[in-house]
Amino acid sequence: MTDSQVQQAYAARASEYTAILGAIDDMPEPDRNRIEHWAQQISGRIIDAGCGPGHWTDFLHKRGADISGIDLVPEFVESARLRFPEVPFQVSSLRALDEADGSLNGVLAWYSLIHLPPADLPPVLSEFARVLSPQGHLLVGFFDGGPAEPLDHAVTPAYYWSVDQMSSLLHDAGFEVTHTEARQDPGDRPHAAISAIAR
Predict the structure, then answer these.
(1) 114 and 159 in contact (C-beta within 8 Å)?
(2) More reliable by pLDDT, 186 or 175
(3) Percent share of the chain, pLDDT over 70
(4) What residue spans define the domains of the chain?
(5) Hey, which end of the chain has fewer CB within 10 Å, N or C?
(6) What is the reported pTM?
(7) Which long-range contacts (CB under 8 A, 24 or more apart) does 64-73 make?
């Protein structure tokens, strides 16, 4: 999927998506705990890369994080600015972040990499490594499954990744994996998350 195809697919359903998945109270408690704990380790700027409706960005902002949200979909960014006016949001592609080398201390990529074609994932991970300072923190959330196996996503094509394969890609992009997790919530696809630091 190209950026424009993903953008168009989500733009057409942005209001529906936000109504269903745009509130922090609808997010699993283990995810809230994981993301909050991750951010508490970070002193300095964080971006929520692929922030969607902006609920995770606001969640961390309310807990004192110096965070801003970016997303490919203008409709998401416009809605997030209205819903969370104290938090900065802007339209941006993950492929070319508008950030200087080593200027960030954290990147949250929570289910924002799932639509990247497998060949496009390594360059995006390298872009995250570029903008993070040494020892900067990355947290990635994704669907756990066969590496690069397509899944039937409601909005636009997406892919599973295994914890081992994602960890390997992160290592190749310049990260040291510090924590992995995987779980199966009833009625949901298998979930995985990886914390890493930039080498």
Answers:
(1) yes
(2) 175
(3) 99
(4) 3-198
(5) C
(6) 0.95
(7) 65/39, 65/106, 67/39, 67/106, 67/108, 70/94, 70/97, 72/3, 72/6, 72/7, 72/10, 73/6, 73/7, 73/10, 73/11, 73/14
